[in-house]
Every structure is written in structure tokens, then in C-alpha cells.
Amino acid sequence: MKEVKQMNPAACRAIRALLEKELPGILYESGLSFDLGSARYSDTDVTFKVKLFLGGVDPAQAEFEKVCGLFDLEPSHYGATFRVRGETFTLCGLKPRSPKWAVRGMNANGECYKFKESILTEIRNDAIAAIVSGSK
Q1: Distance (Å, rounded) from C-alpha 114 to C-alpha 95?
Q2: DSSP secondary-structure letter at 104?
Q3: Stretch (H or E) spanning 25
Q4: Less crowded by CB within 10 Å, the N or C end of the chain?
Q5: How is 26-93 classified by DSSP, letter by letter?
Q6: Helix (H) or strand (E) segment spanning residue 105
Q7: Model pLDDT, residue 37
């Protein structure tokens, strides 16, 4: 990575990529995993919200597995991909207490978006198609 002279969106993305590449190796021996959350920056600094987890357990996935049955999904649907307006998203969470915007999807840039529950129909249909075609 080049020397950073000013914090801007491009520098923050480069720093995030570096952290996502290097932190797993650093934390591996400790038995920890991490979630690199939102970032805030000014001209001279950037702050990332970092969560560390014991035993390599992803709390978002654990929560998904607890509530997925409420949405007629299986734990294996965590991480499923779906498309909205030409952009691909990864299913990364469900919020049963948010009935209108209960589905969370992450785009390729790591940005999380809220979706209506109706998007789950596409995910279920894709899973069924994969089983029928034998690709899963």
C-alpha cells in the first residue's frame, strides 16, 4: 500500500482491504476472528468499528441461524447471493423485529443494505433450482 497523505474514501477503502487481509493471520493464533464494521474519517484520521469474536464464531451468522426458521429459510442460506437492480448482494442477516425491512444484504464493497422480506422469494427459488439441478 502506498503512503497515505490524506484520508479520503479511496484511502479508507485501501486501509480496510489491508486490515481485512492482514488481521486474520494476526488473530489466528489467539483463536479470534473479527468483523470490520463502519468507518468514520476526517482529513487526518480514520476510525473503524472492530469486533473480535471468540472461537472464530461469527455472531451475525449465529443470530441468522437462530431466526432463519421464522423466514422459512435454512441456516445454509446464510451468505446466499441475490440481485437487486443489477447489483449482487450477499444475505448477511435477518431482523425479525424490523418487519418492513427485515433482510440485510451486503454488496461487493462491504456496504450493508436493508431489503423487504419479499426478496427472500428469489433466494428460496435459487436454492430450490440448485438442488433440482444437482449443483448443491
Answers
A1: 10
A2: E
A3: helix 9-28
A4: N
A5: HHHTTTEEEEEEEEEE-SS-EEEEEEEEETT--HHHHHHHHHGGGGT--GGGTT-EEEETTEEEEEEE
A6: strand 103-106
A7: 85
